Amino acid sequence: MQLDGQVAIITGGSKGIGRAIADAYAAEGCAMVIAARTQGDIDAAVSAITSAGGKALGVRCDVSDETSVANLVDATLAEFGKVDILVNNAAAIHGPIPAVELDLETWRTVIDVNLTGAFICAKAVLPHMYEQGSGKLINISSIGGRKGGWGRAAYRSTKAALISLTETLAAEGKAHGVDVNCICPGGTDTEMVRIASGGSVNPDWVKAEEIASVALFLAGPGASAITGESIDVFGKTNPLFRGR
Questions:
Q1: Residue 36: in which H helix or E strand, if any?
Q2: What are the helix (H) ranges across 28-152?
Q3: Which of 80, 155, 205, 234 is an active site residue?
Q4: pLDDT (0 to 100) of residue 88
Q5: Annotated catalytic, 155?
């Protein structure tokens, strides 16, 4: 029970990678705050955790909206009294679209959720972590954050920026006892990725639970010497394996 007594907020926590992380944390004794936009999905995630004996709170939240995020943090503090862990997982993705055909509305939506949303959440939570002198912040980037790629202008730009934001927040947070790290998953078998891939499934995709295991390590005491790092979890989608 390496997270016993701790409290974590996970954005986009009702599905995919976020849900896998929430389940992994709850199994280790962490009280979970599931933030997402769809109430039915939130209720399902909270029910699964509480039915297994864990503690969970569900909050509808639009991470791109400051007021919505402020309400999320207020609800967390009212229920549990603190925030020990923040996982910025909420994300929007777009299908493969050449940059010259990408409409500005889609560009702005992806930027607002993936990058601005992570900033807003960090800005809302970090003061509380600073005050208590401890905390873990984990950003979920992507293999797409390591290199640009055809048709992914908005998505990959945000994921690359998340890596830089991670390093900046780590530099600022260490003096306050806060560690900030990033995970870069390879192609992962989630509903969002399947939709972006036109419904196809790649047998080489990483499982969400594999990402969750890294997120659990980073949130736990064994990662106390790690901050400002971005950890690649590419699985069989690792570019090193191409051309074998």
A1: strand 31-36
A2: 39-51, 66-80, 104-111, 117-132
A3: 155
A4: 98
A5: yes
Environment class of 72 (CB within 10 Å of its CB; exposed 0-12, middle 13-18, buried 19+): buried
Amino acid type, 57? L
Asked whether 126 and 137 are in contact (CB, 8 A), the reply is yes
Position 241 scores a pLDDT of 77
pLDDT at residue 238 in the model: 81
What is the reported pLDDT for 197? 66
pLDDT profile of the chain (244 residues), mean per 10: 96 96 98 97 97 97 98 98 98 92 97 98 98 98 93 96 98 98 86 68 84 97 97 86 62
Q: Is residue 2 part of a domain?
A: no
Task: Look up tokens 């560009």; give the residue.
Answer: 107
215 close to 171: Cβ distance less than 8 angstroms: no
Domain of 170 in residue numbering reads as 7-233
Looking at residue 202, its amino acid is: N
| CA dist., res. 205 & res. 129, Å (int) | 35
With 0-12 / 13-18 / 19 or more C-beta atoms within 10 angstroms meaning exposed / middle / buried, residue 147 is exposed
For residue 21, give the CATH number of its domain.
Answer: 3.40.50.720
The secondary structure element, H or E, covering residue 60 is strand 56-60
Q: Flag whether 122 is in a domain.
A: yes
Q: What is the pTM of this model?
A: 0.94
Q: What is the token pair recorded at 13?
A: 């926590």
Find the helix or strand (DSSP H, E) in which 181 lies.
strand 178-185
